[in-house]
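ok so I'm stuck.
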Amino acid sequence: MAIPDFQTLMLPLLRYCGDGKDHTKSEAVPALAKEFGLTEVELAEDLPKVRQGKFYNRVAWAQTYLKQAGLLEITGRGLFRITERGKQVLVSNPARIDMKFLEQYPEYIAFRNRGKSNREKQESGQTAVEEAVSDATPEELLEAGYRQLRSALGGELLQQVKSASPAFFERMVVELLLRMGYGGTREDAAQVVGKSGDGGIDGIIKEDRLGLDVIYIQAKRWEADVGSSEIRNFIGALSVNKANKGVFITTSGFNKNARSTASNVTSKIVLIDGPMLAELMMDFGLGVSLVNTYEIKRVDSDYFEED
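replied:
not stuck anymore, here's the structure
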């Protein structure tokens, strides 16, 4: 039979995880392939220009969408399992799970809207598939596909960060700041950033290699949004250290009062929430690997001009 599309794979994948145990994609792929009766030839079919099997890729996308809707969750490196919400869905015995089905969950809507303009968000709620078959140009389709890929990658990155250990989070933030050009050398950064004992890090890092200025850092690997009290404490720490620049990083978000508090001080405070953290990781190549690149070319009219 033909390789099923990723939406068709959503319900079988959720059922496969219904035992409540941790699973990997490498375990799920052969199990689902057997369920759909795929042959070795079909399983060996690769995506053009992508070093990955087509069926494996579609299982991965089914997993990504189920995670974004809160039906699956990451439990460790390469591990995922069904959530209580996912179990409730299985109890309801749906005939099919697809992107339209997932629209009932606000987490999925937020995921789908990431990277869209305000105008796109206000439109009639088209799904990514419906957008792809609209009257868009090939360049627009490529751009929409790129945004969708980036949005999915950002969401998965953030879930991986949240499931990592506090020690890993500490090293990761240091590495990100180094890649962004702060901290001088790795040895400098490692010496000035210390453990806080609560899943985050606090410390001072050089703004440049010469150490002409310093930046005070606080990072929280949290689920709940950061409030104004945490920002006020951070402002107090800046004052004690006679610093006028600070960066507050969290895997969650900042509520309205926290952002207002940060904006109403003389010190320069940059707030980096979870989605922005994921964006920076993608932009600076941290925790991601390059799968492929595509070049878009046009005719060079100057070349064909004759004297």
